[in-house]
Amino acid sequence: MSAPTRPGLEAWRLRDEWAWPALVALGLFLFYAWCAPRTVALEDDGIFLMASYFNGIAHPPGYPVFTLLGHLFSQLPFGSVAWRVHLVSALFGGLTCAVLWGLARSLVPSRAIATATALAYGFSEAFWSQAIIAEVYTLNTFVTFRLAWLLLRLAARQAEGGPVRVGRTEALVLGLLYGLGLSNHWPLLVLFSPAYLLLAWPVLGPLLRRLPLLLLGLGIGLLPYAWLYLRAAMDPEISFFGPFDGLERFLLFVSRSTYAAADHELGVGWSDKLGFLRFQGRALLEQLTPYGAVLALLGLGASARHRRVILALLAGSLCVSLLLILLLDREHALLNEFVYRVYPLPAYGVVALLAGLGAARLGGWLQRLPTPAGRASIHGLVLAALVLLPLVVHLGQNRRDHYDWAERFARAVLDEMPAGATLLLHADIDALPVGYVRLVLGHREDVTVYGTNGLLFRNRPFDPWRVTARDAQATALAELVERAAGPVCFVGTQGQFA
Question: What is the tens place of the pLDDT at every residue in 342-355?
């Protein structure tokens, strides 16, 4: 296949190359499935496992697309419940890299470079870590890059010349995919959306002529939120905040207004934001290793041929990294770094694309070597290093098929409880693994678990919508202790019983 004569032209000619990205998707899915923990892990893994298993409601904004898929996967007839739900992230991790293959292939004429780009991203530290646990981020990156790929295909038609017509199905799919993305992780998708506007600019007129179909697809894609509202009214075993009891509470939940205090902490200043910027800089070097970061810099210098596409993707990347740091007011601390590190996953995918462009540019320089065999060997080593370095560097921390610390901790806590005990749990690091082992695995059914903040479990000691003052919450917890028939134990007090 000849090299593209215009930016993005190859994107329209890739329909017969489905086998390559399919192999990338399948290979990475199987690899992630092998690496994934067979039981509950830390982070938010426990809440998504329980929300998926009980067909419940995760923390705001609810992530209904992921939990619906997680519930479907939890019914598979093999493996542990945790591993089955982890396969959702593994599946979309592989699919994300397949889409990234297509984006890379539209920018460079080499299948080998496109494959190396996709695998390098698949083995990057943060992306890999989210592809093996129950989390929403690989589903988000799949939607993010799939939308970019569809818009790039439309723009490629315009580059061929002549009138551009957006088909009914194309418009419906674009709207549907964007709506489903909003029903998964709307904040990150909205932040990346300036990239879509720039990618769609050459075909904005034909797209606007299909606005009714775009809106129809968008509305269908948002339907999972209607399910979330109805399911919350059923008060399942796991349901953050419980029934909404009105549209106002539902909107507060979906808009994440309930997290306002966490997103805008008091006393945060520019020193905290500079600390996050330094952390972001280190993370960019670490994801593909410094070698990949150097290739990305080379690719940035080679992007004039694809200026509009690269600028669009960089705009989205800056929004989910730099702009997000400016919007959030969080104290720069180790725990907050750990929480933040996964938000810029789309930006790391763009870095991988730039690394692919850098490898292509380096291949051009190698054309000056006198022997074809020498050129091919050196370029092969360049691509192999792009893939193997992140794989080797990150394998130790992301191969977690034997990980069971969280479950062992939860079992140890539950096994220490007297018969018929009431167990009060506060911090997520305690409540999520203990809740999974107690409610999903059914260990120590004689122990009744409660969340001291009234958010996670159905048997709330108080209504978190109405009882917001700490004194009132403490009074409700004291009344719960008084009513308890057996021993009362607690984990993770953090002063809440003072």
Answer: 999 999 999 999 99
